Amino acid sequence: MRTAFALVIAAPLFFGVLRASDLVPLATPPQNVEIRGFLGIVVPSSPKSVPTGDFRSILSVIAKTPAAAAGIQSGDYILSVDGRSTAELKSFGELVHLLQGAPDSKVRLELKRIGSGQVEILTLTRIGMGFAAGSPK
Question: What pLDDT is recorded for position 92?
Fold first, then answer.
């Protein structure tokens, strides 16, 4: 089974920086594609993608997603996901796995805010949407 959601967060790994305009909603998901819930957070796939050199720094937030509605910003730093410290994570892929989940499932994020440096705990609900990278034909 393939995962359509992987294109939303993993796209920076293959296509460079992902922009919201690069996403095209699928009206009907292809067969054998698992639709995963997502938050609208884009994390860097490479240390060169972010000034801090750390994949736990949020690269961007996609408009009209749970992350955007919660006020998450580019540069905010993910300290933990559902109580699991991100300090123990070794790769971008591990973080993506923690951020993904079933549509309509809740996830608890502990963030260090870019502006104030304060730690904030947010509970967001993943949304389930199929996306493909590219533009409509």
Answer: 81
* Of 26 and 38, more confident: 38
Number of domains in the chain: 1
CA distances from 99 to 28, 40, 43, 64, 71 (A): 24, 10, 10, 17, 17
Say if CB 15 and CB 59 are below 8 A apart: no
Terminal C-alpha separation, the chain: 25
Contact, 38 vs 9, CB < 8 A?
Answer: yes
Q: Where in the sequence is the domain holding 33, given as residue range(s)?
A: 2-133
Instruction: Tell me if the pTM is above 0.90.
Output: no
What letter does residue 102 receive in the DSSP assignment? Answer: -
- CATH number of 41's domain: 2.30.42.10
